[in-house]
Amino acid sequence: MLGRYSEWREWPLLGLRDLSKQFDELRREMDRAGFDFDRGGFGLGREVWPTVSVSDKGDAWELKAELPGLSEKDVELTANADSVTLRAERKLETPARHTVHRRERAAFRLARTFSLPTKIDPAKVEAALKNGVLTVTLAKVPEAQPRQIAVKAGS
Amino acid sequence: MENNQHKNEQTRQGNVLAPPVDILETEQELVLVADIPGVEPSKIKLDIQPPDFKLEAEVVGAAQPTTYVRSFHVEERIDVERVNARYDAGVLTVRLPKSSAAKPRRIEVRSA
Asked: Fewer CB within 10 Å of terminal CB in chain B, N or C?
């Protein structure tokens, strides 16, 4: 985050050098306080869903996405030999005769494609949605699975 | 309901997340809706002692210990006995019925 402003330090004009240092200080302070520069607001944690993570489980890749409030029919998954695309939409409606005092939860529509570092078998993709968390297991093709190599003692 | 964020500041292990919350009101009740995906319903702790309202829930299976924490001030008089909560698809909905004293009452004006 700070890197974006680092070129200011090279600015030859009088005084700007110090100013940029102060700005960096301020920025660091605000980062600490939770200000999100990219969204332009103080975040109360994670406001924009969903958070997605991809991890290596050895013989498979595991994609996890937080999709609170969604059911199976709101989620669409497509898998290719080396990528997976997740589409999801959340609508929010205020029930009739309700006054809104606070609205932090957001509606979202998402379409994200994740390129995978190895080939996978699109026929062996499993997905489950539980407690608002989508877990997708993408089995790697046999060639991409890790292989244990026995180390022999040299002569 | 007033945000009461500063009361969350205490030392804790792992990640502490402030989940996004909606607060709605009808004539009968306050409704609090929170996005807290990935927790077990039995691991959700709701502590309501008006005017304090505290929500705490631990995420199951996170890479590092993660807890959702939010607290609020409940301004309306709440019938604590009748508070109910439901957790569905990662969304917690807490209904806080107003005690009869806090409900608006229509008073009929009669002509003499």
From this structure: C
